[in-house]
Inverse folding.
């Protein structure tokens, strides 16, 4: 189905053509080569002269003179002209962005002159989810996160999987409470890890944190501080943001790796044992592990006892050390 005239008008405006140029160009596309007189009569309701309008189309690379006396105009293949117009519009948009940023900076210095208020933004209520999407959608390189319930958004994290596919890197430290949320491990964490997320687990996380490209962060309370999150802090470049990045890196260094499947294949381990070790590393409760594996508590303890006997471990901590040493984690 061909693009309608109305839709084409919108596209041509995006490229920077004015109303008169669009009308004349549309007429040329419908009728072919036309003289200045014919175009002037066919498009009478113009704000500019027909000569100026045609000059704009020629400059844009969308039309040219034709005929032995160069008295007629016709459309031309627009490839080169469109490329030049696109680059010009991109340059104009970049300049507009700079002007808006400068205008806001001037506002902050003169009208709203509290020097630190722009560094921290408090978002509450229904606006939280919208701001999170708005900030995360602008990511270019990397997202660092400390993950803990309660969550603003439920269900699978398709947004992260899409960003991983386009080259954005994710490093996430999960709290044990994250794994305890019903379905969160299998529906959210593991699909993201399989898509390329680097994940680790820390027994005690200091806050719930997301850092975008090292340039902006949002912080809220973790499950150990509150059952429901009703506010979100957005932190912009400052010593506070630097401290939050340092806090994340400290948590990352002290956390245990979490993989979608554990280590390399090892004929001493059954697949379910490798999965059980991965879940143990998350700090998940016994019931959660059994439910995720689809086995009973009794069967879970039987596997656990067999692993501990095989490794000579008398505690789960010793089992974890052995698994790490054998590269099972």
């Amino acid at each position: 189905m061909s693009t309608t005239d109305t839709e084409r008008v919108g596209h041509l405006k995006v490229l920077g053509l004015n109303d008169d140029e669009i009308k004349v160009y549309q007429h040329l596309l419908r009728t072919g080569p036309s003289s200045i007189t014919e175009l002037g009569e066919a498009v009478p309701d113009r704000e500019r002269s027909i000569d100026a309008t045609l000059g704009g189309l020629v400059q844009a690379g969308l039309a040219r003179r034709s005929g032995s006396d160069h008295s007629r105009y016709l459309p031309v293949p627009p490839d080169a002209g469109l490329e030049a117009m696109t680059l010009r519009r991109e340059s104009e948009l970049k300049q507009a962005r700079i002007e808006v940023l400068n205008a806001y900076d001037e506002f902050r210095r003169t009208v709203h002159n509290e020097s630190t208020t722009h560094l921290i933004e408090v978002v509450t209520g229904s606006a939280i989810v919208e701001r999170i999407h708005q900030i995360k959608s602008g990511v270019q390189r990397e997202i660092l996160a400390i993950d803990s319930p309660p969550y603003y958004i439920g269900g699978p994290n398709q947004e992260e999987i899409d960003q991983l596919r386009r080259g954005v890197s994710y490093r996430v430290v999960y709290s044990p409470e994250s794994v305890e949320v019903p379905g969160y491990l299998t529906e959210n964490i593991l699909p993201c890890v399989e898509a390329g997320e680097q994940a680790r687990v820390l027994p005690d996380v200091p806050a719930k944190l997301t850092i975008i490209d090292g340039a902006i962060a949002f912080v809220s309370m973790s499950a150990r501080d509150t059952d429901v999150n009703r506010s979100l802090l957005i932190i912009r470049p400052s010593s506070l943001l630097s401290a939050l990045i340092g806090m994340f890196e400290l948590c990352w260094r002290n956390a245990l790796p979490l993989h979608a499947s554990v280590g390399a294949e090892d004929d001493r381990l059954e697949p379910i044992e490798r999965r059980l070790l991965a879940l143990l590393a998350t700090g998940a409760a016994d019931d959660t592990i059994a439910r995720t594996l689809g086995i009973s508590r009794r069967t879970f303890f039987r596997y656990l006892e067999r692993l501990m006997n095989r490794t000579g471990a008398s505690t789960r901590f010793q089992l974890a050390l052995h698994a790490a040493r054998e590269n099972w984690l």
In short: The chain has 14 helices and eleven strands. The first strand starts at residue 34 and ends at 35. The chain has four domains: 5-76, 80-113, 118-258, 271-325.
